[in-house]
Amino acid sequence: MRDRIAQEAARLMVEEGVRDYYTAKRKAALRVGAPDTRNIPRNTEVEAALQSYQKLFHGERQIARMQELRGSALEAMRFFEQFEPRLVGSVLTGTAGPFSDINLHLFTDVPEEVNLYLLENHVPFAADQRRLRISRNRTNEYPVLRFMAGDHAIEAIVFPRDGLRQAPCSPLDGKPMRRAGMDAVTRLLESTN
Length: 193
Fold this sequence. Notes:
By secondary structure, the protein is an alpha+beta fold.
């Protein structure tokens, strides 16, 4: 039952654009007829099912999608170079689907500098806040900027400069979130060419 729920959650994330692991698992449990089950899979199990699903059903298309998204991410990172950008999330891990955003972490001690930079460059954006877990018992709220770069939605979370030293906790496993700088993203692009 646990595997069935993980597989259905992965399908929901890819085909229906469900972005949140918790929501995907709950919907999947309902769909497989186990709404009150104690067999809810871990996020890491859903992530593994997601990778398998994409490889099986979207093989070459997924590789092309990742190349395109990572290329766009690298362009956005160059644009934000002064804010020491890092790529995070599904574009970095290779599990991005057709509904996925490009997720960046930016670093500055004055978050308004990023807003001003976007305004100066005539980039329309929406501003919001996001609460992230920094450690087991601590969360912080950070500014979030959302905008379009060509056909791709980008979500940039703005951290203070010392946030480079400690990544927030990953929703997958609670460990520090994996981040990649421009050189690492360039290597990822080159490795799939």
